[in-house]
Amino acid sequence: MNHYLVFLKKELVEHARTYKLLIMLVVFTIFGITNPLIAKLTPELLASFMPEGMSMTIPEPTALDSWAQFFKNTQQMGMIVLVLVFSGVLSSEISRGTLINLLTKGLSRQAVILAKYSAMLLVWSLSILLSAALTWVYTMYLFPKDHLGVGYLLFAISCMWLFGAFLLALLLSSATLVQGNYGSLLLTGLMVVLLMALNIIPSIKEYNPVSVASKTMELAAGKIDPSSVYTAVEITAVASLGLIALAVIVFRKKRL
Fold first, then answer.
1. What distance lies between CA 254 and its chain's CA centroid?
2. pLDDT of 151-187, one tens digit each?
3. Total Cβ atoms within 10 A of residue 66
4. In angstroms, rounded to a whole number, what is the distance separating the alpha carbons of residues 215 and 219?
5. What pTM was estimated for this model as a whole?
6. pLDDT at 48 over 80
7. Looking at the 3D structure of the chain, how many domains does it have?
């Protein structure tokens, strides 16, 4: 336990020194501020680009449009930034040989994996929480008359967080299986593409981790009941734990 806490502190300090924490916070701060602005200004921008003489009925933007931007930006650009920022979280230390000295001094390999995942998860949690909070504040300011159901919205945000946690577990386990930053990125990308391809099969969709992220907007809008994604949520959580367990097992046997 002591080894885990010491290495976790070291990881958090390194994320701050290498600007990983700063990049994540800046990117998700931008998302949080611009989500409501994009929703508010989109109808005006569409109207300004329409040819002269052409008329089109554009519905008034609502708070739901702001949250649609939140889930869209987080699911697409946010996840890409998350994976890219932490792509070298293990392979860079292996290539530099910095882990060898620590391991020879008694640091357990299990503590390394658990601390690295915990540090990434803390940064991810802080980032999405910051983005959601900013989106909430600016949405209430720009759309004061709208009232969005808080229950499903919070659950939808939690589902997005869970999918990010799953991606981080997949990235870390990939880093133990292959060499180099690009190898772990490629393997993670291939697995995500495979899951997205499987998601078009109705019989598999209910159990697919991708469904946890893809149905967040429907949850926020109240179009589907949370119970419809419970199975996918449970499988995603178990899969994340399984991937971390796999990373620990593989890393224990890995030659550095």
1. 28
2. 689 999 999 999 999 999 999 999 888 877 788 889 9
3. 24
4. 6
5. 0.91
6. no
7. 1
| pLDDT, tens only, 50-91 | 565 555 666 787 888 899 999 999 999 999 999 999 988 887
User: DSSP code of 1?
Assistant: -
How would you class 41 by CB atoms within 10 Å of its CB: exposed for 0-12, middle for 13-18, buried for 19 or more?
middle
Between CA 74 and CA 128 the distance in angstroms is 8
Measuring CA to CA, how many Å separate 145 from each of 24, 72, 141, 213?
32, 23, 9, 28
Identity of residue 106 = G
**For residue 228, what is the DSSP state?**
G
Distance between CA atoms of residues 145 and 139, nearest Å: 10
Task: Give the Å distances, CA to CA, from 191 to 72, 76, 211.
Answer: 21, 16, 14
Domain extent, residue 79, equals 2-253
**Three-class DSSP category at 19:** coil
The beta-carbon contacts of 182-189 under 8 Å, at least 24 apart in sequence, are 183/91, 184/87, 184/90, 184/91, 185/83, 185/84, 185/87, 188/83
Give the integer Cα–Cα distance in Å for 74 and 193.
Answer: 17
Largest CA distance in the chain: 76
The pair of three-digit structure tokens given for residue 143, joined into one six-digit string: 């759309």
Which whole-number Å values give the CA distances from 7 to 111, 207, 241, in the listed order?
A: 7, 35, 20
- Mention every residue, 6+ apart, whose C-beta is less than 8 A from residue 32: 70, 130, 131, 132, 133, 134, 135, 138
Q: Which of 232, 208, 56, 29 is nearest to 135 (CA)?
A: 29
Tell me, rounded to whole angstroms, the distance of Cα 173 from its chain centroid.
16
DSSP string, 91-144: HHHHHHTHHHHHHHTT--HHHHHHHHHHHHHHHHHHHHHHHHHHHHHHHHHH-T
Q: Note whether 191 and 212 are within 8 A (CB).
A: no
Tokens representing residue 23 in the block: 């990049």
